[in-house]
Amino acid sequence: EPEVTQTPSHQVTQMGQEVILRCVPISNHLYFYWYRQILGQKVEFLVSFYNNEISEKSEIFDDQFSVERPDGSNFTLKIRSTKLEDSAMYFCASSKLGGHQPQHFGDGTRLSIL
Amino acid sequence: GDSVTQMEGPVTLSEEAFLTINCTYTATGYPSLFWYVQYPGEGLQLLLKATKADDKGSNKGFEATYRKETTSFHLEKGSVQVSDSAVYFCALGPQGAQKLVFGQGTRLTINP
Predict the structure, then answer these.
(1) Taking Cα atoms as reference points, which of B90, B12, B103, B13 lies closest to residue B46?
(2) How far apart (Å, rounded) are the C-alpha atoms in residues B93 and A13?
(3) Phi and psi dihedrals of A84, rounded to 5?
(4) In angstroms, what separates the C-alpha of A58 from chain B's closest C-alpha?
(5) Among A7, A28, A40, B31, which residue carries the largest CB count within 10 Å?
(6) C-alpha closest to that of A31 among A67, A79, A80, A64
């Protein structure tokens, strides 16, 4: 069964550095998402992306964050000038359609900011 | 704003016991409701969903009914197995939005 893949599984970065988290969504899916889960807290929506532009974003997704689909298969989340509080598990998801069609999640990237 | 509240975990049961994990929500309009499951070391997998009031979602022996009058979507299974041990997340999809809003997750452990 096709799946969403995320790399790396664990990323350790110094505070203030930029980090790029990578995702390969399921190939025929059109909607892409990023969520994060800070340890011990809820899974939180960051952003959704459709037709090469952001379709929805949360208050968390400020100027520090950006997303890109650089080619036909990858979907990336860039965090500029990372802060300690950016440490979390980041999940990528994709869905064939919008409107709450099932979202398929990757296994996540654990980001640790030192 | 939209929110989801799940029963506190962890929950520990014996094999073949009856399972209920409570979930209530706050939302405007007509959200869709979901249960996701996360097995150790894996991502979230959709377990079941319901898109309108009185709909029952079911999968792998799990069931949940969308109750608008009580704003609830409780997860049930009649006879759990050791392989059901995982973290279960209740979530809602607000009407007109793409995002999912998650509850805090309930860790379930089934002992043989």
Answers:
(1) B90
(2) 33
(3) -55, -40
(4) 9
(5) B31
(6) A67
